[in-house]
Amino acid sequence: MKTQFPIFNICNLSQSNQEDIIISRFASYLEKHQNLILSHKHSFYHLVLFTEGAGSHAIDFQSFLVKPYQLYFMVPGQVHSWSFEGKVDGYVVNFSTQFFQSLLLKTDYLEQFPFFSGSGEDSVVDLPDNLQPIVLDLFEKLVYESEALQRLSQDMVRVLLLQLFILIGRLNFENPTHQATAFNYTLVRKYQKLVEKNYTSLKLPKEYAELLFITPSHLNTLCNEMLGLSAGEVIRDRIMLEAKRLLTNLALTISEVADQLNFADNSYFTKFFKKSCRRPRQIN
């Protein structure tokens, strides 16, 4: 029995020692890497478009039904697994965190897109009918550029991917749940990034509000409006996610998990875990 999730980097999966980008049709990709249907992590961004197939896909312990013309966006570190029914096909793009750095001066450019937030609800996008042929054409061009290996092919891949991200990003901001000022959206993203970095040491919204130079009340209002969660729930959900990830490692005791998450003792951690499991989630 495995004691932890395997972690894959692009070199693990590349047939040509490629370090920064892999583009493939999904059926052939899955045939080469059948073990990827089991729970695992990536050290890279992972993008999948399904054109055929059914079943389910679990991202950080949240399950989604697989269906044609559905896009999945995953960020480094997320745990996911597949459970397919019948034949599946589509496209897959894996790219490293460094892939766009040679083209973009703004190193955090991708973080403006909700589907790269690491949130399950934002990570899965059902393409509307009018966008399906456009997105399909972009993926066909990505496959062509990856196979043709012409001069500046990687830059063309970068441009095509950015075109895709902007196109899908517009969908997110047309959605009423994401209609907010650019400033407010930036604040919430900064809060999520701070939580990601400090969730084991800073566990109160007021501590993050101080870092953002806003009041705890304003931070809570922004989170409720944009995420459908209170500021405190954002912190607790991140701690809970890491707890689930750690508890799947059979080599760790509950006390060791509690210690890694900076709980005073394992009884307090156990109470937190049980309470969080019972707490109903609000779905926008």
UniProtKB/TrEMBL annotation:
Q: Is the Transcription regulation keyword given for this protein? A: yes
Describe the location of the HTH araC/xylS-type domain by residue ranges. Answer: 189-275
What UniProt keywords are attached to this protein's entry?
DNA-binding, Transcription, Transcription regulation
Which named protein is this? Helix-turn-helix transcriptional regulator
